[in-house]
Each structure stands twice: as C-alpha cells, then as structure tokens.
Design a protein that fits this description.
- This protein is an alpha/beta fold and 476 residues long.
- Helices cover 36% and strands 16% of the residues.
- The protein is built from 16 helices and 17 strands.
- The chain is elongated.
C-alpha cells in the first residue's frame, strides 16, 4: 500500500531541525513528507489567517501538519489546502511521541474512578457564612464529592444546623465531622448524610441519626474497640464505613497501614475510608506523590473513600491531586497497566523528559539569525542567547545579559530588558529543576501551570502581513 504523504509547515529557523527529525521518523512511522518553509523565522508566531494564503500543498498530500503554536481556526487552512489540517506538537522534537498517539493523549480507557473524595473544611464553626460557602464551592470545583464540615472540640456550635442547611441549599453533599452527639443531631436534621466519626464515646447515639457513619478505633493502635463498635452498628442496622486511622510517620505509620490490610481481611466486604491528611499535612514533602501512593493503596484494597484537607501550603492542591490520582490508579489497577506517561498533570516539579538541541544545532541556528531579537535557550547547565549571527552562552544570567547588552547595536528599551530578564529567570528555574524551557511559554507545572500571554510577537500594525527588506514577512 502507498504510504501517507504528510506536508509539514514551518519557519526558517526550525527547518534544519525539522528535516533531521523527519529523516529519522518518517521511515520508522511509515509516511512520506514534504516541508513548506514560509517566509518567517519563528514558527511560533504563525496564525492560520496568515498561513492560509501562503501554504502550498503538493499533489498527493493527505494532510498538513502546522506547528503546535500556530493560532487561529484550522478551517481557514483546510479551505486553502483542500486536505485535512492538524496542529502538531508545540515542540517539534516531540514529533516521534506525537506520531505514537498524540503529545499528551491519554489511553481510551482513562478517566474512570470509583473512589469518593471527602474534602474537609477545618474549624468551620469559626468561618462566616460567605467564607464557608466559598470554600465549599472551591473544593467541589477541585473534585470533592462530599464537603466534610469540621467542628472544633470544646467549642459547641449552636449554628451548625443553619450552616449545613446553607451548604445543602448550595447543592453540596455534606458530612459532619464531630464526636458531639448534639452537633451531629442538628447537622443530620439539616441534611448531613455522613457522620465522622463514631467509637465508644458516641456510638449509642448512631441509631438515632438515621444516616451512615464512619467507625473508628477507640485507640488507633488497638482494633478491639473497633470490633465492638462494628458489632453494635450491625446489630442496630446502622450503615457504616470503617477507618482504622492512618498515623503520621514516626507515630506508627507502617503499623497503621497494616491495620487497613487487617480490617480488609476481617471484613472483606465492608466499606472503608482512609483519612490521608495525617500524612499529607504532617510531612515535609509536596503532597502530590503522597496522595498518589495512598490512593493506590486504597484502590488495591477496595477502600472507596478518602478524607483529605488542604490547609498547609505544601498540600494546598490535595483535592485536585486526589481527583487526578484516583483516575490514574483506577486505570492502572483495572487495565493492569503501569501508571506511567498517562497523567502528566501530576508531574509538577520536574518534567518527564528534558529535550535538547545540542551545541551544533544552536550554532547553526545562530548563523541564520541576523537581527538582534534574542532567542533564548536553556540546556546542558547553560543559558544560551542567539542574535546577530552569534551564540552567547553562560551559566550566570547576569553575565549573559551583560554580553547581550554589549552586543546589541542599540540600547535595550526598559520593557525589552524586563522581558529578557523575566525569560532568563524562567530559564534558570528550568535548569535548576530539570524542566524544558521554551521562550515566551509558561514552564510546565502540571496541574499548577498558569498559561502565559506571549510577549514576543510584534503588535498589530493594522496593515496585515508585510515583507521586510530581508525577504521575511511579519504576520499581523
């Protein structure tokens, strides 16, 4: 069968690298290709409106691949090309991955989950109504299924019923977190559907509430009290789930994990909950990895609900992390597939892979650049600036910037200097942490990424594209 003919569109600076990538990729992926080099240096500045009248598709081409950063409606280029048009990856060095199924394509079975997230609002009795509702809305938006209203021991909350009613009116499912039977009774009358928690101190009242409860040990290290609570709840036909209590590191963490296994062995079909805040809130470590591991244990043990909170700053994204983690571990367990290269949003501190151009490629690009619009790169422990046919490299951003200023034929404006300083700061961060740096683009922080507005593109002059003295066109 004839191989598919794909037509790639790019700019002048990217052409040599694109040719090298395609020379190796095309035979392996099984396609023929042609390359359309438009009269522009930086392909990231392309728009579909500008490309449409300039693209030249050879006969036999089945589709056109535009640079990933090409903005605008693809319909414009499709109409001009007469064939299918798609955007490729934002970094052409990722074309091999992209042809393997998409730059960030998740497996078709990915996204399902069966673990419920309870997100606690701590010391809810101390919050005004507006703040309480706002926090609940944020938690639900992040992925919480149930809002756990946390009371404060020793501070009786006479308005708990009104607060629960307001949360229910706002559409939230509510759990009440209190050992005080009076607070719990008022909460369930107003619509709370779950009580955290019951043990020997309050289990006699559970039958009066008419809702599901969470059974916990009287003393975390001893399951004897939990046995008695479970027997009573069974006898009174009170629905419940069991939480053997996860202990902090240094206070019985490993033994507490063992208790979850023991509870599952004793009661193979009982519903279970794991409160994970004792680890995420009380350990000096970013919370995402901890949340993934704990939810993996839950998935394999059949623990179908977790209780989390996000008070301390290093755990402030725990609900969102748990929402992604429950999907990842469900996929891994159900599909018997490694949870790798599936959920990029949980990889935040370091990038999965750092791409490099190499010294030879940077030198070749530098020879093509005759203007003094600096192109910045960061790789191999060095910062690199290309402009005016020269390549400047240094591991010190201040030293590099001084060389850039000295080489520029005219003084840098204040806004240009600020822009370059900002970009160099991002580049240093990328080198420090092991992340990919792409000029004028946000660093990839996974689910915490904040998109950046490009600042390198020249402003619209109202005249559309124009051709400069060097034969290069500038898109509007």
């Amino acid at each position: 069968m004839p191989r598919e003919h794909i037509h790639f569109v790019t700019g002048r600076l990217a052409e040599p690298l694109l040719r090298r990538v395609l020379e190796e990729l095309a035979p392996r992926a099984g396609f023929e290709y042609t390359i359309d080099v438009l009269k522009i240096s930086v392909a990231a500045l392309l728009s579909t409106e500008w490309v449409a009248p300039r693209v030249s598709v050879p006969p036999g081409a089945a589709r056109v691949v535009l640079p990933g950063y090409c903005s605008g409606d693809l319909v414009l280029v499709r109409a001009a090309a007469g064939v299918d048009v798609v955007r490729g990856p934002k970094d052409l060095r990722r074309l091999p991955e992209w042809f393997g199924g998409g730059e960030t394509a998740a497996p078709s079975a990915y996204g399902e989950y069966d673990i419920e997230i309870l997100a606690e609002i701590n010391h809810a009795n101390r919050l005004d109504r507006e703040t309480l509702l706002s926090q609940a809305a944020d938690l639900r938006e992040s992925g919480a299924d149930v809002i756990d209203v946390g009371c404060t021991p020793g501070e009786p909350w006479s308005a708990v019923g009104d607060a629960i009613r307001a949360l229910r009116d706002a559409g939230h499912r509510i759990a009440i977190d209190s050992f005080d039977p009076q607070e719990v009774a008022a909460a369930v009358r107003s619509g709370a559907e779950l009580v955290l928690s019951v043990n020997a101190t309050n289990r006699q009242a559970a039958a009066d509430w008419g809702v599901e409860v969470v059974a916990v040990p009287d003393v975390p290290a001893d399951l004897a009290g939990l046995d008695a609570t479970v027997q009573l709840l069974d006898a009174q036909r009170v629905p419940y789930r069991v939480d053997p209590i996860l202990e902090p590191i240094g206070f019985g963490f490993a033994a507490s994990l063992q208790r979850y296994f023991e509870v599952r062995r004793r009661w193979p079909h009982v519903e279970m909950l794991m409160g994970i805040g004792n680890l995420t809130e009380l350990t000096d470590v970013d919370s995402a990895g901890v949340n993934v591991l704990l939810l993996a244990i839950c998935q394999e043990l059949g623990i179908r609900s977790v209780l989390t909170t996000q008070v301390i700053n290093w755990a402030r994204g725990s609900v969102r992390e748990c929402d992604l983690a429950r999907r990842l571990v469900h996929y891994a367990v159900e599909e018997r597939a490694l949870p790798k290269h599936v959920e990029p949003r949980l990889v935040m501190l370091r990038d999965p892979r750092v791409l490099r151009y190499g010294t030879a490629a940077l030198e070749a690009m530098a020879e093509q650049i005759k203007d003094y619009n600096f192109r910045l790169f960061a790789e191999d422990g060095q910062l690199h600036a290309l402009a005016g046919g020269q390549l400047f490299s240094d591991d010190d951003p201040f030293a590099l910037f001084a060389r850039m200023v000295a080489a520029s034929p005219k003084p840098l404006t204040a806004d240009h200097a600020f822009y370059l300083g900002y970009e160099l700061s991002k580049a240093v961060t990328a080198l420090t942490l092991g992340k990919d740096y792409r000029q004028d683009q946000a660093l990839d922080w996974g689910l915490l990424t904040r998109p950046e507005k490009p600042h390198r593109q020249r402003p619209h002059d109202g005249q559309g594209a124009r051709e400069d003295a060097g034969g290069e066109e500038t898109p509007p």
